[in-house]
Design goal:
This protein has an 8-stranded antiparallel β-barrel with strand order 1-2-3-4-5-6-7-8. By secondary structure, it is of the alpha+beta class. The chain is built from 1 helix and 8 strands. Residues 3-9 and 30-36 have low confidence and may be disordered. 17% of the residues lie in helices and 47% in strands. The protein starts with 18 loop residues before the first helix and ends with a strand.
Length: 154
């Protein structure tokens, strides 16, 4: 069943794992972790509708409160991440705002991702609780809150 990792060749002491056994344990752990990540992603996947409310400060004085629709799907080629396709609703019509990639924390309930342009470096943080998505948009590096987001899953 493989070469021993310690001791004489062909000789197994109690508690000793062969190389094949160790590889098997690592493969099993990876499969279980991958399954856990997919289960975590399942909670955030779907369509979310709600509000994005501004916290007016000098740096975001042009910010406007919005009705939002977020479409969350698995991020292509990134099994540990999701893609959040953000839309705002203006006069009853959805307008695309962009896509951000989010990754989970160790609990799988909190997801975050960064976005930047020439003026701002922003951090999106979302928490999933059943059919409720709540989050904040923060200005980096000081993490000032610019928006509070609240949405329900369709």
């Amino acid at each position: 069943d493989g070469e021993p990792l310690a001791g004489d060749a062909g000789h197994h002491e109690a508690g000793e794992l062969t190389l094949n056994a160790r590889v098997g344990v690592l493969v099993l752990a990876a499969v279980l972790a991958g399954g856990r990540l997919h289960a975590q992603a399942d909670a955030i996947l779907g369509t979310w509708r709600g509000t994005s409310i501004c916290l007016k400060e000098e740096w975001n004085r042009a910010c406007n409160d919005e009705q939002i629709v977020y479409y969350v799907t698995r991020a292509p080629g990134r099994p540990d991440s999701v893609a959040l396709d953000a839309h705002k609703v203006v006069n009853g019509v959805e307008e695309a705002m962009g896509v951000i990639t989010l990754g989970p924390d160790s609990t799988g309930r909190t997801w975050s991702g960064e976005w930047s342009n020439a003026r701002y470096h922003l951090l999106w943080i979302f928490e999933v609780r059943d059919t409720v998505l709540s989050g904040t948009l923060r200005l980096l590096p000081d993490r000032r809150i610019g928006r509070n987001i609240s949405a329900r899953k369709d």
